[in-house]
Each structure stands twice: as structure tokens, then as C-alpha cells.
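Help needed: design a sequence for this.
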């Protein structure tokens, strides 16, 4: 990992928690946000120095990232951020769409004013960050919107399952986000999903969700053409 590729976020750790999970979380954040791009080297020695740790928790974190397909480890050679695997992205999308169609069905089948207020707050935060062009904060509010729907439907643990498979599709979404109109479409879609849930319109909620989650996948060919060095198509 060269000096120029040192992660541009605060690498201080919470000393009350185990180090390896925090290293994993911070590196994953950098990879998914595309601050660490496909092909970026990840040298254990330099990472250990940057985090102020021994190489053991660095190795453990990199192994976990490899298990998610986000880094490639070549023994006795190098470790680097993986390319975006389009086939893996499609599978992650299929998993999430299948689960969230059922989630919005559950949520739209009952009245829950507190949940509506909670989800609206996430949309409002997204809107503020859209205006300010703070895309990482925009995406964090996007994630919170969907995670809270999982929790409200009583399947919060499935959110963690989805995240283990979402790295490739989330990177595609991050590449697509700055495109003209994309952030506004996300806001529109979230509002449509929420309005349908509030009106207990199951069909409308599922239709809005399907359109929302399929937006980036419908643009895969264009994204691949724009960023050929970032993707693997198989």
C-alpha cells in the first residue's frame, strides 16, 4: 500500500473493542465507497503502521474481506482490492430484492405511525446530503432506511446476512450515484416506498421497491463501459 493510497479516513481505533473487526469495518467502508479502488494495493506492513497495530489483526481483517470477495490475496506476492464481480453483484441483488419484497409486504400490511416517522427522517437526512453533495452521508442514510425496514419487519439479522454479499453491488451503486439524476431518483423511490407503506398499499410498495432496487442493475452495461478496469464480467 503506497503512501498515496493511505486510507483518507480517521484510522484511530476504539481500544475497548477488538482490533480486527474495526480494521475490517474501516477497510470495507473505503472499498465499498470506492475510495480504495479495484486494484489498489493493500500491504500488511503499511496497514499495520497506519492503524498502529501488529500485522495479526490486519491479516485477519484482510482474510475476512477476501471471504466477501472484496480483496484478492496472492500468497508471497501481494494483496489488492478486487475488481467488481458482475455475476456476484447480480446474485446479491436477487437476494436483496427477494427479501425486501416480503419486508415491504409485511410493513404495508399494518399501521405503524412511528415507523413512518422514522423512515421519513432518513429521507430528510438524505435530501440534505443530496443538496450538499455529501455522497458518503447520503449513502449512509440510504442504508439506514433499508436496515430500519428490516428491523421493523422482525428480520434485522437478515440485514447482516445481506451485507456479507453486498460489496460488489454496493460498489456498482457508488459508481452510479454521481450520475445526473441518480440521487434524486433514489429520493423519489424512497418516498414512493414510504408513501405506499403509510397507505397500506402492498402492491404499490412492492412495485416502488422493485423499481428502486433495479435502477443500478439496469445500467450495468453502461457502467462497465465507463469503468472497464474496475469490473470482471464472467
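Sure. Designed sequence:
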Amino acid at each position: 500500500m503506497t503512501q498515496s493510497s493511505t486510507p483518507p479516513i480517521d484510522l484511530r481505533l476504539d481500544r475497548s473493542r477488538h482490533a480486527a473487526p474495526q480494521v475490517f469495518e474501516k477497510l470495507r467502508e473505503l472499498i465499498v465507497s470506492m475510495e480504495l479502488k479495484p486494484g489498489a494495493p493493500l500491504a500488511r506492513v503499511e496497514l499495520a503502521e497506519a492503524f498502529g497495530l501488529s500485522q495479526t489483526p490486519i491479516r485477519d481483517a484482510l482474510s475476512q474481506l477476501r471471504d466477501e470477495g472484496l480483496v484478492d490475496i496472492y500468497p508471497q506476492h501481494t494483496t489488492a482490492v478486487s475488481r467488481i464481480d458482475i455475476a456476484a453483484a447480480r446474485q446479491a441483488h436477487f437476494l436483496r430484492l427477494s427479501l425486501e419484497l416480503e419486508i415491504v409486504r409485511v410493513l404495508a400490511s399494518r399501521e405503524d405511525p412511528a415507523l413512518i416517522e422514522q423512515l421519513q427522517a432518513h429521507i430528510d437526512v438524505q435530501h440534505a446530503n443530496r443538496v450538499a453533495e455529501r455522497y458518503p452521508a447520503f449513502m449512509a442514510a440510504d442504508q439506514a432506511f433499508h436496515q430500519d425496514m428490516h428491523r421493523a419487519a422482525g428480520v434485522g439479522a437478515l440485514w447482516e446476512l445481506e451485507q456479507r454479499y453486498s460489496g460488489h453491488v454496493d460498489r456498482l451503486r457508488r459508481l452510479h450515484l454521481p450520475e445526473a439524476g441518480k440521487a434524486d431518483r433514489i429520493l423519489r423511490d424512497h418516498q414512493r416506498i414510504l408513501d405506499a407503506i403509510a397507505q397500506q398499499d402492498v402492491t404499490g410498495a412492492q412495485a416502488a421497491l422493485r423499481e428502486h432496487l433495479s435502477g443500478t442493475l439496469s445500467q450495468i452495461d453502461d457502467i462497465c463501459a465507463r469503468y472497464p478496469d474496475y469490473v470482471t464480467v464472467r
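Residues 86-108 form the longest helix (23 residues).
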